[in-house]
Design a protein that fits this description.
Order of helices and strands: HEHEHEHHEEHEHEHEHEEHHEH
CATH class of the largest domain: Alpha Beta
Number of helices: 12
Strand order of the largest sheet: 2-1-3-10-4-11
Number of domains: 2
Helix content: 40-55%
CATH superfamily of the largest domain: Bordetella uptake gene, domain 1
Largest sheet: 6 strands, mixed
Strand content: 15-25%
Shape: globular
Structural class: alpha/beta
Length: 328
C-alpha cells in the first residue's frame, strides 16, 4: 500500500507540473522579453533579431527588446542567457560561431552548447562574401580571388583578413582559404562584423569575409566582392563566383542565425516560441526583410539540436585541418 501510495503521489505531482507548465505557457508572455545579441547593432545577427522581435511583438502582445552584449565572439551574450532564469523572458539570438565554434576553441567558455540551452529555431542561413576595398592601395590591383591568393603567396605574412572575433566563422573561412591555398595570411579580429567592415572600408585590412549587410556597399562600388563562401552563388550578386568555382572545390562555409532559451525553460514555452517564429518568418513583409539577410530557414527544436550536434563535429574537423588555435 505504501508503494502504491508513492506511485499515486508521484503521478499526481507529475500531472500537476505538466498542468502548471501548460497554464504558464498559455499566459506567456505577460511582460517584456529580452533578446540578447552578442554582436553590434547593424550586424546580421542584430538585424535578424530586430526583425523577428518586431514580428513577435505584433503576434504575441508583449514587447520583444534587443539587448546587445558585444564581445568575445558572442560568448558574453551566450553566458548571460545560459545563466538566466529559464522562464522564457531572456532569450539568445546567436550566430553559429558562438554555439558551434567557440566550444571547440575556448576552454573557459562557461556554457555548454548542448546542455545549457534549449534550441528554439534557426531563422536564416547566411553565406559570406569575400570582399576587398578597391580604394585601398594594397588591393587596388586585385580583380579576382586568384589575384588575392597570388599576392599572399608573393608576400607571406603581409595579407591581412578581418573577422568578427577570434574563432568566428569569418575567422575560420579566412584560415581555411589560407590553408587550402598554402599561403600565410594574418588574421585581425574585431568586436563584430560591423567593426570589421568599417576596418575594411578604412583600408586597415586587405580583405574580409563580409556578411550580406555589406552587399549595398558592394553594389555601390565601395567594396569589391571576389567570391561567395557557400556552394551556391548569392542571388543579389549573381555575377560573383563562389570560392569553390575558383579552384577550391571543397570550400563551403556559411552561418545561421538562431534563437535559444536557457536550459530548463518549459517545453511548452519553447514550442510556442518555435511556432510563433515560424509564423513570423512566413509573413510576406517580414520574409522579404529576412531574405535580405539570408535564406529563411526555420526548424523544430529537435531538428535544430541535431544540426548543432552535427556542426560541432564538422567544425572540429575544419579547425584541426586549418590548425586554428586561440591564445587565451
Amino acid at each position: 500500500m505504501r508503494f502504491f501510495g508513492k506511485v499515486v503521489a508521484s503521478s499526481a505531482l507529475a500531472a500537476l507540473a505538466a498542468t502548471s507548465s501548460l497554464v504558464y505557457a498559455s499566459d506567456y508572455p505577460n511582460q517584456p522579453v529580452k533578446l540578447v545579441v552578442g554582436f553590434s547593432p547593424g550586424s546580421t545577427i542584430d538585424t535578424v533579431a530586430r526583425i523577428i522581435g518586431e514580428g513577435l511583438t505584433k503576434r504575441m502582445g508583449a514587447t520583444f527588446v534587443v539587448d546587445n552584449k558585444t564581445g568575445a565572439n558572442g560568448m558574453i551574450a551566450a553566458r548571460t542567457v545560459a545563466q538566466a532564469n529559464p522562464d522564457g523572458y531572456t532569450l539568445l539570438v546567436s550566430n553559429s560561431s558562438s554555439i558551434t565554434v567557440n566550444p571547440l576553441l575556448y576552454s573557459d567558455l562557461q556554457y555548454h552548447p548542448l546542455k545549457d540551452f534549449a534550441p528554439i529555431s534557426t531563422v536564416v542561413s547566411v553565406p559570406f562574401v569575400l570582399a576587398i576595398n578597391p580604394e585601398n592601395p594594397n588591393t587596388a590591383s586585385i580583380s579576382s580571388l586568384k589575384d588575392l591568393v597570388d599576392l599572399a603567396a608573393k608576400e607571406p605574412g603581409h595579407v591581412t583578413y578581418g573577422s568578427a572575433g577570434n574563432g568566428n566563422l569569418m575567422h575560420l573561412a579566412g584560415a581555411q582559404l589560407a590553408a587550402m591555398s598554402n599561403t600565410d595570411m594574418v588574421h585581425v579580429p574585431y568586436r563584430g562584423a560591423a567593426p570589421m567592415e568599417a576596418a575594411l572600408l578604412a583600408g586597415d585590412i586587405y580583405y574580409g569575409f563580409d556578411t550580406l549587410s555589406g552587399v549595398p556597399l558592394m553594389k555601390s562600388g565601395k567594396l569589391k566582392p571576389l567570391a561567395i563562401s557557400a556552394k551556391e552563388r548569392w542571388r543579389d550578386l549573381p555575377d560573383v563566383p563562389t570560392v569553390a568555382e575558383q579552384g577550391y572545390a571543397d570550400f563551403d562555409i556559411s552561418f545561421w542565425v538562431g534563437t535559444f532559451a536557457p536550459d530548463g525553460t518549459p517545453k511548452e514555452v519553447v514550442d510556442r516560441l518555435n511556432q510563433e517564429i515560424a509564423a513570423v518568418a512566413r509573413d510576406p513583409e517580414i520574409q522579404k526583410k529576412l531574405m535580405a539577410q539570408g535564406n529563411v530557414l526555420t526548424q523544430s527544436p529537435e531538428e535544430f539540436y541535431k544540426k548543432i550536434d552535427s556542426e560541432l563535429q564538422q567544425n572540429g574537423d575544419l579547425i584541426k585541418r586549418a590548425k586554428i588555435t586561440i591564445n587565451q
